[in-house]
Design goal:
With about 550 residues, the protein is an alpha+beta fold. The chain folds into 2 domains: about 300 residues, Outer membrane efflux proteins (OEP); about 160 residues, no CATH class. It has a 6-stranded antiparallel beta sheet, with no helix packed on it. The chain has a 3-stranded mixed beta sheet with strand order 1-2-7.
């Protein structure tokens, strides 16, 4: 069910941005792997250039997919830190009934409420609500609150029942020493912002490592493929030599010992072929895992065919001081360490601030309002100068609703309240804060020391990688000369065997020398390619030199079901 026509597969490849064509074992195009398709089994052959392998690896590699989450999570942590400054709405509502026996004659308890004459009955419905929050940077806090309540009573000295009250208040608190600027919420915002940059550099470092691993695996596959080819050719040579020796034995030219020698040489080459074939398949699996990620299955039979050749190499003229300078400016691990130092400096400032006394300036302002209806149990003439006249024409209180309690707000008749206070708190002997400063300073010193150690390691690493690359370039020339000499010696030994001047054993020895020389040549090219990649990685320029944009790599790929 995985077979499709060529036009369909080309269209699918274009949509998936896959740079190569997958061919089935019957030379029929195979369906491309789709992310999250657990039923897809890779098979056939896939021709890949190194650039295509890197591109596919950054798309499909599960290690990269895991690391993509790190900067995204760090960004969310920064947003969470900013959430400390979100205004908060709060409120509380309730009802209370208070029936209290009293012998206080002054209260003059009424009987309109269902209570004994000696019971003082008060019922209250109240609530408050408002906004409160923090101000960024300064560490200020604010609170705007509206209170309201409704109270009924049977006290005859209480003019209003129900009595309606409202109060609108604003409170502002400003730290003057401890908590000024270097308060916990603002410090969290700044440190999480820097941690987000650290996470970005960590992801960039991970992508560099992945690119380097893909390149190493790509050139390793080519080396294992070439080793397999050499061993196959060596096995064919050993078979031909055995046939030739058996023919010579039949005509009486050589003894049976020569046949045994030829068979032993053939068996040795069969073992070498088995080992090289196994190494080749392991190299295939490693590259497939790096390039296609979750496309690897137990039933997969895909075979990647690298199209780039290691023989096409460029001789580098290496400037070590310039390479070190590039590394200092481009290495993500060094950039992350610099960000960590900045974060540690912020922690030191915060710790020093926490050592100060707590001195807060508190300002508050509010208005209050009153309304309601006249209490049925209220006796307005009880304390009047002329009770008789008052009883003939008792004063009446105008009934108002809750909205009228706000009428005088902001006017000259307002019942306003204003307060300015200073609150001082000094912890003694402030042990935690003092040792907190020492701890933060030690962590900063440690980070600076780690940066210097990392810089020293970078210098050492760049010098070593530059030296390895130069040595690898020289090793290619030497390995090519050695391979040419071994091939010429094998050719001469075969001619001597034809004229009876040599033995199959001597030819096998020469042939082993040639295989060894070919292997050294193959390894020389692999070492050169690996050394070039390592120097690029050590300089931190591996993404730049391959035109890889980290913002294009950072987007999540894997669908979560």
């Amino acid at each position: 069910m995985f077979l499709r026509t060529l036009p369909l597969i080309l269209a699918a490849l274009a949509l998936l941005a896959l740079p190569a064509t997958v061919l089935a074992e019957e030379d029929t195009p195979a369906a491309p792997l789709r992310p999250g398709d657990s039923s897809a089994i890779l098979h056939g052959k896939l021709a890949l250039s190194l650039a295509d392998a890197i591109k596919m690896g950054l798309e499909n590699n599960l290690g990269v997919e895991v690391d993509r989450h790190t900067p995204l999570i760090a960004n969310e942590n920064e947003s969470i830190a900013w959430g400390a400054y979100d205004p908060e709405w709060y409120s509380e509502f309730g009802y209370a009934s208070d029936k209290n026996p009293t012998g206080n004659a002054l209260l003059g308890l009424g009987t309109s409420d269902s209570a004994k004459p000696s019971d003082s009955v008060n019922r209250r419905t109240d609530g408050f609500g408002g906004f409160r929050g923090l101000v960024p940077w300064l560490g200020s806090s604010y609170q705007l609150q509206l209170d309201g309540n409704r109270t009924t009573t049977n006290n005859t000295i209480q003019a209003l029942s129900p009595e309606l009250r409202s109060e609108l208040s604003f409170r502002f608190t400003q730290p003057l020493l401890k908590g000024l600027i270097w308060n916990e919420p603002w410090t969290s915002v700044k440190t999480n912002r820097i941690a987000s940059l650290e996470a970005y550099e960590s992801f960039r470092n991970s992508v560099m490592d992945t690119v380097a691993r893909i390149e190493d695996a790509y050139w390793n596959l080519i080396a294992r493929e070439e080793t397999l080819r050499v061993n196959e050719k060596s096995l064919e040579t050993a078979k031909a030599l055995l046939d030739q020796t058996e023919t010579q034995y039949e005509v009486g030219v050589v003894s049976k010992v020569r046949i045994i020698e030829a068979k032993a040489g053939l068996a040795s080459r069969e073992v070498d072929l088995i080992r090289s074939s196994n190494a080749y398949r392991n190299a295939q699996d490693l590259l497939i895992d790096l390039v296609l990620g979750q496309g690897m299955r137990a039933e997969s039979t895909l075979e990647i065919q690298p199209s780039d050749r290691p023989e096409d190499y460029i001789v580098y003229d290496i400037d070590v001081p310039l390479a070190v300078e590039r590394a200092f400016s481009m290495r993500p691990d060094l950039a992350a360490k610099r960000q960590e130092i900045e974060r540690r400096k912020i922690n030191v400032k915060f710790a020093e601030n926490q050592r100060l006394p707590q001195v807060d300036a508190v300002l508050s302002y509010g208005n209050r309002g009153l309304g309601g209806s006249q209490n049925d149990d209220y006796n307005p003439c009880r304390f009047a100068e002329d009770p008789i006249q008052c009883a003939l024409d008792p004063p009446k209180i105008k009934s108002t609703n809750f909205g009228h309690t706000f009428d005088d707000y902001g006017t000259s008749d307002a019942s306003d309240q204003f307060a300015a206070r200073v609150v001082v708190t000094i912890p003694l002997p402030n042990t935690a804060a003092r040792h907190g400063v020492t701890k933060a300073e030690l962590e900063l010193r440690k980070a600076v020391s780690e940066q210097r150690r990392l810089e020293q390691n970078i210098i050492l690493e760049v010098r070593q990688k530059a030296r390895n690359l130069k040595s690898a370039q020289e090793g290619i020339v030497a390995a090519e000369r050695s391979a040419e000499a071994a091939a010429e010696q094998l050719r001469a030994e075969r001619i001597r065997l034809e004229y009876g001047e040599s033995t199959p054993f001597d030819v096998l020895l020469r042939e082993s020398d040639m295989v060894e020389a070919e292997s050294q040549k193959i390894n020389a090219f692999q070492v050169y390619r690996t050394s070039a990649t390592e120097l690029d990685r050590a300089q931190g320029t591996i993404l730049q030199s391959r035109n890889i944009r980290i913002d294009e790599v950072s987007e999540l790929r894997l669908e979560v079901r």
